[in-house]
Amino acid sequence: IVETQFINKEQPGQVMNKLRRLFSRARPETQELNILRGILTSIEKKL
């Protein structure tokens, strides 16, 4: 995620906390799913 510049490795902040929550439960919130979509879009653009 850092390699794609989706988050800043110096200040991962709330995004990483939201991702941890996303992967720790079965029903993610809409905002958490949007973060995941953003990550995947960022990765896709870098490829």
From TrEMBL:
Gene3D superfamilies: 1.10.8.590
Top-level lineage group: Bacteria
Alphabetical keyword list: Methyltransferase, Transferase
GO MF annotation: an example: methyltransferase activity
This protein's name: tRNA (Cytosine(32)/uridine(32)-2'-O)-methyltransferase TrmJ
BP-aspect Gene Ontology terms: methylation
